Amino acid sequence: MSAPPKRPPAPALLLRDVVKEYGTPPLRILHGVDLAVAPGELLAVVGPSGSGKSTLLALIGTLDRPTFGHIALEGHDLADLSDRQVAALRARRIGFVFQQFFLLPGLTTVENVATGLLYTGESARRRRERAVQALSDLGLGHRLDHHPDQLSGGEKQRVAIARAVVGRPGLLLADEPTGALDTTSGHGVMEVLRSLNTDGTTVLVITHDRDLAASFPRRIGIQDGRIAFDEHVGGRIAVGEDSAVTHIGAASGLGLDTRGRSEGGPT
Ligand SMILES: Nc1ncnc2c1ncn2[C@@H]1O[C@H](COP(=O)(O)OP(=O)(O)OP(=O)(O)O)[C@@H](O)[C@H]1O
């Protein structure tokens, strides 16, 4: 008897006709974005200032909800989840890195990183052990008890990345992670992100840096709140969209169709 065909994994991320409006009267910032991202992808989001990149990242990161449309993370349609469930999903599965680092000045590096594990309910000692390991993995084992103001920009960003990934999220979202850094530090930070991606983390990076974006296997271009292009080097990565469609559609009764992903770029 032959083995049943393997079900492809659910996409790491699936957006279906996502619209975001702000204010009254409503100003539409995102105009029906469709996007599917496979687990383990490394992609850059590029586009002019004000085109909607950070808005998109906030929706993907569950920091905000879309006005219309649907977003699914690892097969979970966010529309089916309560705010509490969404917060739990965010804490466990998503890591954030921002241009400004957002480290707590009164805490040491290891304490800053351990805050990334507060949701786990683990003991303070265990959180510290994991934070030490994460910092050591990022080459900061010699900076454990330093405070942020004693670190270089590149070191601060690596601490912020350690905090973002110490809980082993499936998805890492980075908004201009190299924007405040000199070229060398920026390259160091990108190497860290690449190596996390090689270890299986899906990584999405917003960047204004054209050279940086050009080095990514996939680039999404946002223009006026729409996907203007979706370029893949070496073709698309197979995504288990159909399994996710069934799952999400059945769960929400929406019949979510994921074939509406952007077809703007080369395949
Ligand atoms: N909370 C908000 N209320 C009203 N308008 C907003 C809000 N957040 C963002 N906007 C508007 O949405 C548009 C897109 O902003 P967004 O920050 O997503 O752009 P961006 O592409 O990330 O820009 P940049 O590259 O300059 O960071 C802008 O016109 C901005 O003013």
TrEMBL record:
Domain of life, per the record? Bacteria
Key words of the record: ATP-binding, Nucleotide-binding, Transport
Q: Name one GO cellular component term.
A: plasma membrane
Q: Which InterPro entries match?
A: AAA+_ATPase (IPR003593), ABC_transporter-like_ATP-bd (IPR003439), ABC_transporter-like_CS (IPR017871), ABC_transpr_LolD-like (IPR015854), MacB-like_ATP-bd (IPR017911), P-loop_NTPase (IPR027417)
In the UniProt record, does the keyword ATP-binding occur? yes
What PROSITE patterns does its record include? ABC_TRANSPORTER_1, ABC_TRANSPORTER_2
Q: Which GO terms describe its molecular function?
A: ATP binding; ATP hydrolysis activity; transmembrane transporter activity
Domain ABC transporter intervals = 13-250
Q: What is this protein called?
A: Peptide ABC transporter ATP-binding protein
| Originating organism | Wenjunlia tyrosinilytica
